[in-house]
Amino acid sequence: MSYFPLLMNIDYKKVVIVGGGHVARQKIEALLPTKATLIVISPAVTETLQHYINEGLVTWKEKAFEPADLDDAALIFAVTNDEKVNNAVEEATQHWQLLSRADAKGRVDFINPAVVRRGDFIVTISTSGSSPGLTRRVKIDLAEQFGDHYAQYVSFLKEARQRILQVYTGAKKTHLLSELLDPQLLQWIEQDEKQKCEAWLQQRIGEKQ
C-alpha cells in the first residue's frame, strides 16, 4: 500500500478511540498536542488514560462499543484486542470517515507516523508499517539531532519572515528570506542568545534598535 503523507488540522474535530489499553494510550498521547475532541469508548482504561480523563483532556464513555458512538467523528481508531469489536467499528464507519485499525486486519485509511515535535517544527517518520523498530530508532536519532531549541528557532524564523514580507517584495525579499537560514542564527538560539538574532534582523530590514 502506498500512503500519502499528510499533516491534518483536526482542531475541534471529534476523534473516537475504541479501546482503552496501551495502544489507545499511544494514540491519545499523539493527539494531545492538537485541539481535537478526544473520546474513548471502552469498559475499562489504563491508569495513564485515567489520568488524562481526570485532567479533562479526554472524555471517557465507560461502555461497550455501539455504532452511534461514531456519529460525527472525523477520525476513528479501532485499537481493541478483540477482532470482533474492531470489525464492528469498521462496519459502522461511514465512507467519509477515516478509520485506522491497530490490528491491520481490515480497513486502514491512515497510519500514524512517529513524530518529533518542536513547536511548529514537526518531523514525521514512517516505514508504512514494515518495521516499527526502525521507525523508533530513526525517531530517537532525529530527536537528538533536532533538540528542544528548534521550537524557539522556528518561532523566530516565522516572526522574521512575517516582518520581512511586510517591508520588502521582489528580489530583496527573496534575498532576505534566504539569509534567514544563516547557521549563525541557529547557533545563537541554541546558546540562548536570541537578542543577537533580533539585532541581526533589525539591521537587515532597517528597523531602529
Automatic annotation (TrEMBL):
EC number(s) on file: 1.3.1.76
The keyword Methyltransferase is annotated on this UniProt entry: no
Catalysis performed (reactions): precorrin-2 + NAD(+) = sirohydrochlorin + NADH + 2 H(+)
Molecular function GO terms recorded: precorrin-2 dehydrogenase activity; sirohydrochlorin ferrochelatase activity
Gene3D superfamilies, per database record: NAD(P)-binding Rossmann-like Domain (3.40.50.720), SirC, precorrin-2 dehydrogenase, C-terminal helical domain-like (1.10.8.610)
Keyword Coiled coil recorded: no
Pathway annotation: Porphyrin-containing compound metabolism; siroheme biosynthesis; sirohydrochlorin from precorrin-2: step 1/1
InterPro entries: Met8-like, NAD(P)-bd_dom_sf, SirC_C, Sirohaem_synthase_N
Domain of life: Bacteria
Keywords on record: Lyase, NAD, Oxidoreductase, Porphyrin biosynthesis
Alphabetized PANTHER family for the sequence: SIROHEME BIOSYNTHESIS PROTEIN MET8 (PTHR35330)
Protein name, as recorded: precorrin-2 dehydrogenase
Source organism of the structure: Cytobacillus purgationiresistens
Species classification: Bacteria, Bacillati, Bacillota, Bacilli, Bacillales
